[in-house]
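Tutorial handout. Part one gives the primary structure; part two gives the three-dimensional structure as tokens.
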Amino acid sequence: MLQSTDPQDVSRYIDAELHPDTLQSFGGDGRERYIAYISDIKRFHGSLSLLSYEKLSDEKLRSEPLQLSARVRSASTELDYQLRLDLSAEAPYQITNIDIVYARAQAAENNKLNKQQLAQQLSAYVDRLTKRGTFSGVVLLSDQNGVLYQSAKGMADLRYQVPNNTDTKFNLASMNKMFTAISILQLAETKKLALTDKLVRYLDPALFAKGDFDQITIQQLLSHTAGLGWPAYPDTHPNNLRHLNDYRPLLKHLPLNAKPGSRFGYSNEGMLLLGMVIEKVSGLSYDDYVQQHIYAKAGMTQSGNFDIDGVTANMAMGYFYSQQLKSMQSNWFIQAIKGNAAGGGYSTIHDLHKFATALTSYQLLSPELTQLAYSAKPELNSPNYGYGFSVRSAHNGRVVGHAGDFIGVSSALRIYLDKGFTLVVLANQSFASEPVVNKADLLLQQL
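Part two.
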């Protein structure tokens, strides 16, 4: 299916091979989501060539969940990926999940680079991606002495052929979660709340459905361990969801899928709830709090949760390929009309560079709480996530930050704490930031 040139083969494969429960996931949209995801993957990578695959031993066949795994190489990105198929435990062993993720690699030890060579190779790589139609956006790489590389590629607006520039504002998707977490920690620092407080101390328990919602704590929401599931919200016009309070009537549709604190489960709604807590405790709107206590302190003058039906200068429109139209299509009719505590705000590479500098120089939080934010929380069953920050430790030492992905949006901030580098990649095209981030990570290993 991945090698086929017939676009109908994706839907045929999904209908034939996916488990019925998976087809009905995401509130009944599982089939459409997987068809769109795989179609986008095929178009993004151009082609995926098989490098190797793992044969299923008798022991693997008896394990749960049953998983098929193969290593493939992308023609477009020049990088290797792991293709994983999770299977149901019983015959006919239908697929319960399809995932294609970057296969982390270690750079060759004998191929050392200096900073100038690193910048040149990263620049050449971004140029190749752009030429193949795989990247549209902006990139900034800096060290402690300043910017080493920055560039803008592609179009902010395809209809009017307006090019991206290094000051263009891009949708951040989930990257806003960092600002929400910093805000909560600031309120904890000033003793206006405690991380061990129960959520219902600040939000009326009557807002929620039945379940152990009264056991959810602030730190569980920060670390995505509150047990929240995927909500089945009723159809709501975007104009009716401009403010956090607009979501309150919908919280009855938010399920609790696990005991609070028992496991990691990434949740946008968890961050929405934290936004409501910020408003309750501070007496300010979420937007005003973040503006005053994060953006202003860091010198971020071009960032905010802008109304996309308003007029904001130099804003990139997000694009994705429509199988139905056979052309690129704007995402402005499917994304939220305004960003919030979970994501959807806008910023620039320079503002996010300022944010990283302010964060790591302890201008936003004390050193103790800053370290708390970007330290993993295995004691809370969150081994790769801190408080609003992803956390990893590999060949480049400690790396923290956050990514953001939505249809037509792909963004990432990576702060290399041990090496002293900051990487910002913002793109107005699905998946586009991921290969740039991973290539930069490989190049940084060679310093």
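Part three, for discussion. The longest strand covers residues 397-406. The chain has 13 helices and 16 strands.
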